[in-house]
Known about the structure:
Blueprint: H1 4-15, H2 20-36, E1 49-53, H3 58-67, E2 76-78, E3 85-90, E4 96-101, H4 105-112, H5 119-129, H6 132-135, E5 136-141, E6 158-159, E7 166-167, E8 173-174, E9 179-180, H7 183-187
Parallel strand pairs: 1-2
Antiparallel strand pairs: 1-3, 3-4, 4-5, 6-7, 8-9
Helix pairs in contact: 1-2, 1-3, 2-3, 2-5, 4-5
The chain binds zinc ion (2 copies).
Amino acid sequence: MKSFDEYLRDAEQAHGHLCAGQVLGVRLAMLGLIKLGIDDPHGKDRKRLVTFVEIDRCATDAVAVVTGCRLGKRALKFRDWGKVAATFVHVSSGHAIRIAAKESSKALARQMHPEIADKNQQQMLAYREITDDDLFTFQWVKVDLPPEEFPGYKGDRVVCEACGEGINFRREVRTEEKILCRSCAGERYYEPV
Ligand SMILES: [Zn+2]
Ligand SMILES: [Zn+2]
């Protein structure tokens, strides 16, 4: 595993700027890896980890950098809960840990560095100094990962009977008489104009 500062540099580069979210995300991901005993996420432990993230904000980019889990590799799963939290799943052992940033961390940063007026700067420094226990809560969990969730899953593609588009990874909706994509089954997030 790289050092905190090395990961932070990588995260800054990937994310485009250095911010409190990068510091928080690097620490959160490193803690996850340590707890799971994964020490080479980009080398020998590659493909051993699936990470669920719960927010589409700065910290998530850092989590992806440290873990090497990416959306395009199916190793990063997004659950849009608006929470600075992530769950790290060791796919061969099934061990999983969910780590969340404590709500009190912002107030603690204020308390530690009242001399820094800029919130981002204040949190960036404090999030380096605060102990894991004061920064995060963690919980061992069990994550149900069916075969189609695994990065290497090879399954049949089906075709939506309404729109004709191909559907991978068992994301289809099967009614009694039809196979539909989620959009045609009513989960559409867009409207044709
Ligand atoms: Zn940022
Ligand atoms: Zn369809």
